[in-house]
Amino acid sequence: MAEAPLPRDNVGSLQRGLAVMEILAAHPGGLTLTEMADKAELTRAGARRFLLTLVAAEYAIQTGRRFSLSPRLLSVARTWLQGASLWSYAEPFMREVALRLNESSSAAVLSGEDVVYVARVPGRHILSVALHVGTRLPAWCTSMGRVLLSDLPAPQLRELLESAKIERNTPKSITDRTALAAEITKAAQAGFAIVDEELEIGLRSIAVPIRDRSRKIVAAINVSTQSSRFTTAEMKREILPHLLAAALKIEDFFIVQ
């Protein structure tokens, strides 16, 4: 492989490793170490390091002297494709909720101790928190986070709460880990979570889960509003039914997959 100068921020070894994966993809029957070194224009030692790294990461399989890609790469691609198409499918239902209530609606997935926003339909009322696709927020103090955490096995949830950086964002923030675990358990039992001014004063949100065919929670959708517009009781009465209906429609995506 010719060594062309790389821009400052490029990682040359990663680029060469991806090229090795592309070569393997073009040879489903597999390649020997010598064949890979020749096709990738690498030394045998360099080709060996890349191939064994892919095997260790379970992206490649070694059978005797031959190396080939593993199904894990297909799984990664499938996950990405499903995620992208899921939120394209979900957005009209979220928009319907947002328009009906004149409030913003968002969707998020769990990433470690955080939630990551994967879709958002802004409302007509401006919130002080700047939120957009890609925003990360602590799971423990958000309604979508508590819904997503509610599906974790108890030992995993306990470990996450013990390691999480929990700070008092507002006077209403629940920072006691036992109390947080109880709130998350309550969300699991109720099928929704409300967070009342724990992230920021004046901000309330309510979230419900999105489940796949196996009933595993894969995402959550919410409605965020100003505390002056809805009490928590009004959120349960006036917002929750629309969120639950939207979640059911979004879950139809998994039935047709």
Automatic annotation (TrEMBL):
Family annotation (InterPro entries): GAF-like_dom_sf, HTH_MetabolicPath_Reg, PcaR_PcaU, Tscrpt_reg_IclR_C, Tscrpt_reg_IclR_N, WH-like_DNA-bd_sf, WH_DNA-bd_sf
Keywords: DNA-binding, Transcription, Transcription regulation
Domain IclR-ED residue range list: 72-256
GO MF, one annotated term: DNA binding
Presence of keyword Cell wall biogenesis/degradation: no
Domain spans labelled HTH iclR-type: 11-71
BP terms from Gene Ontology: 3,4-dihydroxybenzoate metabolic process; negative regulation of DNA-templated transcription; positive regulation of DNA-templated transcription
Domain of life: Bacteria
Pfam families the UniProt entry points to: HTH_IclR (PF09339), IclR_C (PF01614)
Protein name: Helix-turn-helix domain-containing protein
